[in-house]
Amino acid sequence: MNLGNSTLEPAMSLLTMDARAQWANVAERAVQQYGTPCYITRLQPIQKALEELELGQSGDVRSWLSFKTHPLPQLVAWWTQAGRGVEVVSEAEFATVRRLGCPVDQLLVNGVAKHSWLGHYPVSQLRVHFDSPREVDALLPLALDCEWRVGVRVHAPDEQDARDERFGGQFGMTAGEAVASLRRLREAGANVQSIHFHLGQGPQAPDAYVRAVEHVARVCDAAAFRPRFVDCGGGLPAPSFAGRALAGLRTAIRVTQARFRPELEQVWLENGRFLTDQSSILAVRVIDAKDRPESRYLICDGGRTNHALAADKGPHPILMIPERSGAPRLTTVCGPTCMTDDTLGRVQLPEDVGPGDVLLWMNAGAYHLPWETRFSQGLCAVAWCDEAEDLSLARAREQPDQWVQPWNL
Ligand SMILES: Cc1ncc(COP(=O)(O)O)c(C=O)c1O
Q1: Which of 198, 199, 276 maximizes ligand 1 atoms within 8 Å of its Cβ, making it the mutation to test the pocket?
Q2: What are phi and psi of 336, to 5 degrees?
């Protein structure tokens, strides 16, 4: 487990005083109303990130919500009411988003191996991006019957396994597969409208987006295909870290427009981390403290099981309620389960933080909520904070006697 270095300074310095005060205010209210542990998502940071992403693009760029990244029904409702679309990659997401009333025109189906489930949904005019030739084979008859609006996902040259760059990863089609699939779909009479790539979650070279667009353009040329929509996927980190990558995306959008006009109607984006990473925090309460020679240990009522994999990605800023000013002491922030894995960080914290205090684990948006586990405790509360910073309970904390419910007892 990599918990990054033992100081929070670099991560903390990215938080302005205003942001700290806004989060502390919302968190105090949420903790009072819903208890701890509690995720809190604010819409305002999402709106701000969205404005930055769509800056000056006046309808030529359409942002789809990557539902899996931060699967919050309140966010879907706001997003779809604003006229934007939602992107899903699994049957459970598809069923949930449809249940939330998302119109077909605002729903985009991505993801691997969809032939294992999408064939059960004869939905007219669905938008689907095929990920493999096998999917095309299996789903083509339904795509024709239901007049699906389809495209293909191309594996981008810079796409790689975020944890091991020797491997390209399992997504999308090679250039040869994409050309053959585009030809096959069009010869069969399918309504082929779009082409898609996604750079993945590893750190990107600033020109990776442009390289991907040029690759996609070569695929389209080889298939004599002029897309109406080019979907550049996600791939940006959170706004505080996105400077060069965001500039790279802006250049790629201009290259896409120059390369694919006049047929091109819109560039599509599906940024997850950029939009939601800094929109959320996890509030946990310190319930015990142990002083040991090598470290203080703060045991909290929430921990790594609320973040699972995402807690592994380096230090997160931690705010304290109340604010403390004791001498800094190396402190291990632990969750309440029985493994040393259940650790949120080993960081310098004031030595007067103790039982009863609330710790705010910042930047707990993208890929935190979906990686939460029920290990030993059950799921925590989730609070939603709307445009006016009014709070509501999105999900109640799972009670101890509910833990057994999914089991067939
Ligand atoms: C198809 C697709 N779109 C969008 C995203 C969101 O990606 P990111 O968080 O890198 O913006 C992902 C994430 O894996 C994805 O697979």
Answers
A1: 198
A2: -95, 5
